[in-house]
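Reopening: Formylmethanofuran dehydrogenase subunit E still failing for me.
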Amino acid sequence: MSCTFEQHLIDETIRFHGHSCPGLAIGIRAAEAALSEMAGVGTADLVCVAETDMCGVDGIQYLTGCTYGKGNFLHRDYGKMAFAFYSRKNDKGIRLVFRPESRGELDGEMPALMAKSVEKTITGEEQERLQQLRQEMQKRLMTLPIEELFTVQQLHERAPRPAKILESLVCQDCGENTMESRTRRFSGRTLCIPCFAKVEQKV
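Support: Ran it again with your exact input. Result attached.
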């Protein structure tokens, strides 16, 4: 089944991200699945935990209202194409894990061409082929049924707690205010993380 978001919302999401790409399509479909599964949960109670920082997170932020600034969008740097959504209203949660096989046969050519593009060794003909493959992949990802795109896992743990306002401490090296939970102690001094990294050494 094709993506159920109205086209104007998809277009706005693309403008927000800056371009259209397969990664953004994955995020759009993840947002679609989350809003369907968590119907009735307002943006104040919805929380997303992304296990990647790829293009799709922009789609999720734009379409769900989960944002870094509100503290209800969290990034866990696990390197997985997975997104967990929680309701603080009723402790309901789901985790969507992207299914690599959903890329189908189109994924056969793309990795090598993308590597050439990054290395700037790609020919004009190959660049055209890569663009064609990306467009076909986007169309595929936007039209496959959700169950073919993601494995959906039900979560039973509580949503991550809301952000707390903590005291700021002055780093005794650079003199900048730093949130207390992000400071480090070294040789009896309170340091911010960058200043701590300058002096702390591991063998």
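The two ends are 55 Å apart (CA to CA). If you still see a failure, please send the error message rather than a screenshot.
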